[in-house]
Automatic annotation (TrEMBL):
Molecular function via GO: DNA binding; transposase activity
Designated name of the protein: Transposase IS110-like N-terminal domain-containing protein
PANTHER family xref list: TRANSPOSASE FOR INSERTION SEQUENCE ELEMENT IS1111A
Start and end residues of each Transposase IS110-like N-terminal domain: 7-114
Name of one Pfam family that matches: DEDD_Tnp_IS110
Organismal lineage: Bacteria, Pseudomonadati, Bacteroidota, Cytophagia, Cytophagales
Single GO BP term: DNA transposition
């Protein structure tokens, strides 16, 4: 597996924040994009179209999201049914990882970036 991209998703009731990270040849992590989508089936379709346009098809990618009540379930099933490599992590595990790398504040864009960093680790 030539994993170079990770998509981190922080879910809320109404929407979700996404961060796309790329690991370059020198091992440096580069943010390739971030965006907010509605937590609806239409938002899921827009998410797929967005990341497919941004990812170089010669590299593998994974998707990591935080389990947030029940709000993550529909998107997780949508991605699973598309045969995506998706990982759902418990919120306390994600928070512990983010604290360990210095992500101390709690807001959705930073959480999405922390999740994406976790996905490439």
């Amino acid at each position: 597996m030539n994993l170079r991209y990770t998509i981190g998703i922080d879910i809320a009731k109404q929407d979700f924040k996404v961060c796309l990270l790329f690991r370059n040849d020198e091992g440096k992590l580069v943010v390739k994009g971030s965006k907010t989508f509605d937590n609806t089936s239409s938002g899921f379709t827009k998410l797929s179209a967005w990341y497919i346009k941004k990812i170089d098809s010669k590299y593998d990618y994974n998707i990591i999201m935080e389990a947030t009540g029940i709000y993550h379930e529909s998107l997780a099933w949508y991605l699973f049914n598309k045969d995506e490599n998706v990982c759902v992590v418990l919120a306390n595990r994600a928070r512990s990882y983010m604290n360990s790398i210095g992500h101390k504040s709690k807001n959705d864009p930073i959480d999405a970036k922390g999740l994406v960093s976790m996905g490439l680790s």
